[in-house]
Design brief:
The complex is a heterodimer of chains A (104) and B (42).
Chain A lengths: L2 H12 L6 E5 L4 H12 L18 E3 L3 H4 L4 H14 L2 H14 L1
Parallel strand pairs in A: 1-2
Helix pairs in contact in A: 2-5
Chain B lengths: L6 E7 L5 H10 L3 E8 L3
Parallel strand pairs in B: 1-2
The chains are: A mainly alpha (104), B alpha+beta (42).
């Protein structure tokens, strides 16, 4: 994740009630999804940014997860996600991201 | 997990679903987007 964006996430989370806050991801493949999920739960795995060693522990979800999709406007979902949903490895992405919720 | 009333940090990606798209979708579920951006994964 960009260093500036890591700093922005850290600042936002530290100054607010995180109880009702989640992170929503839109990455197109399992590896990038896992990288971002790890960054906002356990800390920056590349140790390059402000979140290195910082365990925010935020619940993280992916836009492709059925529990997320079901709550959204379906016409908008088809417009914005439909193409990626057809081409992405949905099961693997969902499994990887869910794994970070179970660990944290 | 109920998105309605939840605060969302939306992390999109240029080659996937962008930040602005995530924000539109989250709002359609009744969530409040507090931060959103689009990454470029390399």
């Amino acid at each position: 994740m960009d260093l500036e964006d890591q700093a922005e996430v850290q600042r936002m989370v530290e100054t607010m009630d995180r109880q009702h806050t989640i992170v929503l991801l839109g990455q197109p493949d399992p590896n990038s999804s896992a990288l971002f999920a790890e960054t906002v739960t356990r800390g920056d795995p590349t140790w390059a940014g402000p979140l290195a060693g910082v365990s925010l522990g935020l619940p993280v979800y992916h836009i492709l997860e059925p529990v997320v999709k079901a709550q959204m406007d379906q016409a908008l979902y088809e417009e914005h996600v439909g193409l990626m949903e057809m081409t992405a490895d949905v099961d693997e992405i969902v499994t990887r991201v869910q794994g970070y919720r179970k660990r944290d | 997990m109920n998105l309605k009333g939840t605060k969302i940090i939306a992390i999109g990606e240029r080659e996937g679903v962008t930040g602005p798209s995530l924000e539109i979708l989250a709002r359609s579920a009744g969530a409040e987007v507090i931060l959103g951006f689009t990454q470029c994964f390399v």
